[in-house]
Amino acid sequence: MELTEAFDRVVLRHKLLIAMCVFLAIGAVLGLTFTAPKLYQANVRMVLDSTDPTSETASQALADAAKGLATSPSSISQALHEVGISRDQAVVARRIAVAPLGSSGVLTLSVQDTDKVAVAQLANSLANQVISAREKIVQASVSKVVNDLNTQINTLQGTMDDLSKQYNQITSNLAQTDPNKLSTIASLESKQSEILSSRNDLANQVGALQSNLTTVQSDAALAQSSSIVDKGTLTVKPVPSNIETNIALGVLLGLLVGIALAGLRETLSPTVGGRVSLSRQAGAPFLGSVPAPRYAGDPKKVAVVASHVQLAAANAGVSRVELLHVDEQVDLHPLANDLRAVLDSQHPRSKVDIAVVGDPEPVPASRTKTTRPQPALVLISPIVVRQSAFQAVDDYLAMTGLDVVGIAGYGKRQPRAGKPAAREPRAVVVLEQAKDAPKPGRDDAKLTDPAPVPQTQIPPDQKEAMSS
Question: What is the pTM assigned to this prediction?
Answer without folding.
Answer: 0.49
